[in-house]
Amino acid sequence: MNDHLGLFDRADDTGNVDLDELRAALARSTGDAPPDGRRAARASVPEQRPGGSARQDQRARREALLRRRRRRRRHTLLAVVVLAVLAAAITTGIVLWRHNAGRVADFSGAPGPQVFVRVQSGDTREDVAAALQQAGVVASTEAFLDATTNDGDVQKVKPGYYRLPTALPASAAADALVDPQNRVGQLRIVPGRQLADIRTGAAAASTTSSGGATASTPAGGTTGGTAPSGGATPSGTGGAAGTGGTAGTVEGYISAITQAACVPLNGSSRCWTAQDLWQVERTADPVALGVPDWAVAAVQAAPDPSRRLEGLIVPGDYDVPPGSTPQQALQAVIGGSAANWNTSSLVAKAKSIGVTPYQAVTIASLVEREGTAATMADVARVLYNRIQVRMPLQLDSTVVYALDKARIATTAAERRNPSPYNTYLHSGLPPTPISSPGQQAVDGTLDPGDGDWLYFVLVDRKGDVCFSVTYAEHSACVAQARRNGVFDE
Prior knowledge:
Number of domains: 2
Strand content: 5-15%
Number of helices: 18
Order of helices and strands: HHEHHHEHEEEEHHHHEHHHHHHHEEH
Helix content: 40-55%
Shape: elongated
Radius of gyration: 51 Å
Distance between the termini: 167 Å
C-alpha cells in the first residue's frame, strides 16, 4: 500500500505499512479533532480520490493543445484565403496590363472649349506635346508623339500662339496645330513705316529748295518691305517715283499691334483700342517697356511723347500675346526689338564711326525714307558729309513726317513749318527717328559709301540717282530729272 495520503514518514523494509506508526498517526489525528468530537470539514478542498488531480491536469493540457491546434488551423486558413485574394488581384492586374499594353490615353468625342497654346522658339516635338497636354488639348504626350512620328508639318511648326480646342484626339490636334487659321497674335513690322497711321493721296514729285537735297524715294523705302498701300511706288521696284495713289491711310505700328492683340476666344474677346495703346506709348516707363539702355535718355527727352518710341521697333515678325494688356503687348514688341538691337553689331559699329547707337538708328531711318536698295550706303554718306560741314539736311521726308503724310512732295509753306523735325529750318538730326529702318538701311548707315557728295536726286523713273559734290553739279542733275519727267514744273 502506497502512502498517497502522506501519513507515514517511510515504509518498512518489506514495503508494507508499519502498523504502529499507523496507530500513532491516527491517535495524533484524533487528538487534534475539535472538542465536540466531530471532524472539521474542509470546505475549500474538495474530496478527491487518489490519482484524480493528475488526470485533470492531463485533460487540461489536452484541451489547451486542442485549442492551440484549432487556432493554428484558423490562422492557416485565413492566410490561405489572403494569399488567394492577393494572387487573384495580381493575376487580374497582369491580365489587364497585357490587355492594355501598347495603348496610351487619347481623347474621343466632341472637342472642348478653346485655349491659347504657345510654341516657343527652339521647342522640340516633345516640348510641343507637353504644352498641348498641359493645356488639355491632348490627353497624353505619348498619343501626340505617336500621331506625329512621321508628320513633317508638325515637326516644322512655327513659334507663336495658337488657338485650339481642348479634348482633341491626338491626330486632330496635329491637324489643328498646322492649320494657319489657328495661329493668332502675328504681327509683321514693315520697314519704313512709323508708329502713327499716315494719310495717303496723290503724291506730287518733290522739288529741291536752293541747295537742298531731293528725296529720291517715297515713304516706305525699298528694303524688302512693300510700298504703303496707295502711296508712291519705290523707283527701285520699277514704279515711278512721285506717282499718285488713291487717298487712304497707311496703317502704323500702333494700329497693327492693337489688331494683333485682339483675338476672340470661345466667342468673346477682351480687346482694347489704339487709343489705349497710345496712352501707354506716351506715359509708360521706357525701362519697363524694354527700351534699350542706350535709347532711354533720348526717349525721355523727346519733345513729342507720341513720337518718343519711333524707330525703336525693329522690322520683322513678332508674336503678340493674345489677351494681353496694352502695356504687355507693347512691351512684347519693344522688348523683342531691344533684344535684336543688342545682339546685332549696332552698338560696336556705331562707336567705330563716331556716333551713338541712337544717332545711328536716327540716320538709318532717314536713309530708309530717302534711299533705294542700291543707294542707301551713298545716301548715308551724303548725310554724314552734311552733318560734318554743319549744313542743314533739308530732307522732305522729315517735313512730311511731322505732318503724318505719306508723300514726298512738300510745299514752301510746309517747309516753313516750325516743327523740330523740319530739317530745312533746323540743323542736325531730327529729335527722334522718323521710321523703323530695315536692315539694308542700318547696314548702309554703319558702313557708308565713299565720296564727298553733298547732294543727290532721282533723275529717271528707272531709279537712277545722281550724286553731286557742288550745287552747280546738283542743278544739272535736277535739270536732267525734269527732262525725264521725274518732276513737275
